[in-house]
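User: I'm putting together notes for a lab meeting next week and I want to include a structural view of one of the chains we've been expressing. I don't have a solved structure, so I'd like a prediction I can at least talk through. The sequence is below, exactly as it appears in our construct file.
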Amino acid sequence: MLPTLIIQQKIYVIRGEQVMLDYDLAEMYGMETKRLKEAVKRNINRFPSDFMFQLTKEEFESLRSQFATSNKRGGTRYMPYAFTEQGVAMLSGVLKAH
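Assistant: Thanks for the context. Below is the predicted structure for the 98-residue chain, given as structure tokens.
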């Protein structure tokens, strides 16, 4: 498990919600972001808009501009998903079931 401080640094405020992004959660779970997104898509009905939403390009660019270090992820084809606290809990259950 990651130390609490590292986890806190991966919490962002977007659209007035405290969220974690799919690629940070994938890293925490030791899996590829692509696999995490596949699990979400297979269970999409378990993720209403107050659990998860996809960032707009503008939101993602604004977030990237706030990073203190350069983004080592490079370009991204799809905008990341943002998970609220309830969404992270649901994601945990979905990932443990697979």
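A couple of points you could mention at the meeting. Residues 4-97 form a domain with the Mlu1-box Binding Protein; DNA-binding Domain fold (CATH 3.10.260). Residues 11 and 66 are 13 Å apart (CA to CA).

User: Perfect, that's what I needed.
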